[in-house]
Amino acid sequence: MLKSKLNLNPEIIDSARNAAKNIAHETQEFIDKHTTVTVERTVARLLGIDGVDEIEKPLPNVLVDNIKEGGGLAQGAAFWIGNAMVNTGLSPQEIAEGINAGEIDITKLPIADSEEIFEKVNEIAKETTERIKANRDKRQEYLDTIGEGPKPYLYVIVATGNIYEDIVQAQAAARQGADVVAVIRTTAQSLLDYVPYGPTTEGFGGTYATQENFRLMRKALDEVGEEVGRYIRLCNYCSGLCMPEIAAMGALERLDVMLNDALYGILFRDINMQRTIVDQYFSRIINGYAGIIINTGEDNYLTTADAVEEAHTVLASQFINEQYALLAGIPEEQMGLGHAFEMNPKIENGFLMELAQAQMAREIFPKAPLKYMPPTKFKTGNIFKGHVQDALFNLISIWTGQGIQLLGMLTEAIHTPFLQDRMLSIENAQYIFNNARDLGSEIEFKEDGLIQKRAQSVLADAESMLKDIEKEGIFSTIMQGKFGGVKRPFDGGKGLDGVVEKSDGYINPFVALMLGGEKECLQK
């Protein structure tokens, strides 16, 4: 590790990281013993089940609901699908259609030999993982041939509600200089316990995340990427009650970036903590295998808590998200750990404290493509002041070597950005990035000055917090409201009825295949 410009104590960093590791490993014991309806619907999708019934209910939901009603969820969807394949000779898709037609009651079929069941599903699972690997290889081929923009990647959002209008805006943004396009999800999709089907042309505050929408946008960005001569990354939102399902759809359609936080759904969407902690693990296994960069949601803490007083909670969460990601096989190079430029602009020396926070994150997570979020909380609708706030944000980003820069919009707090708003924000960032490209390597910080002391203080507070969580456990910590000032009960929130303890004979072939093993995934 390079010498710290902030004079951070490496022993404190190691202590904090070790506490976070213990926190994650303790929770992993719970994760390994449980599954959820979403995990099993994801397995069904990865085994080839798609489509909807006559009332637009997705067939993965139809199948998993049939398993749950029959009391078989604890053995996993793969077990029952494989058993039905042995009994009927049908494909997974045909089995789901048979359940929907009332011709098959999947848990009532005779139970076949476990090895034969596993072989049936594992053969399909291998084909699916090969398809995802091919997408990963295709991304790399693009990067090797047409290349990409320099870091920090310029990241913008589109949010019309209509995927076809989103495509027009996304391609315009790429031509203006954007490197990453995020298609904002429609309001409250994270609370739906199913994934809508097909292309969508209506949404409030965003566009539905569906596999067909992913496919359409991926195709459009590939086209414009070839036109402008650089690969354009596609981002969506892998969170909420369908976290691993959306990860699977993204992997199948070659998304590049996914919002994917271990705790976000618990804190900010009141999704049950047991459900979220199990779902995030499988979603991250998929994202890791697919080569998708995850973006974590620490910036959200600062929308409910003060960015000066609670900065250490952001760092503590980054440490925890890092460890959960490692357990799921995600390399550091795919960890877009989040933080934000959210201090009140009226604070004296706020810029210096923001600089300390950003430099600290860069030094503690040197390989991570950190995602830096723009000022939003204190935007007023004064577009001239807003543009200056964004310029200061951009200056810190290039100074501290951030990886992914979600561009601030001068019209924040007024409306969803127009095309010209994005253009001005991209020009602002390009101007500053170009003029200050090597600023970080030219400047050192004053010994024991305000910037160094601020970073050292935040690190010490984060270490202390992580040691407390290590003693209490993550669930108890959330119940006490220590993250973002938000309290959540262990048995409360949405989706708890979709959590079940695994039984002997549980099968999920994708865990072993995606984590690098060919061994059988039978729960012993």
From TrEMBL:
Domain annotation D-Lysine 5,6-aminomutase alpha subunit: ranges: 6-512
A Pfam family annotated for this UniProt entry: Lys-AminoMut_A
Top-rank taxon, per record: Bacteria
Molecular-function GO term, any one: cobalamin binding
Protein name: Beta-lysine 5,6-aminomutase alpha subunit /D-lysine 5,6-aminomutase alpha subunit
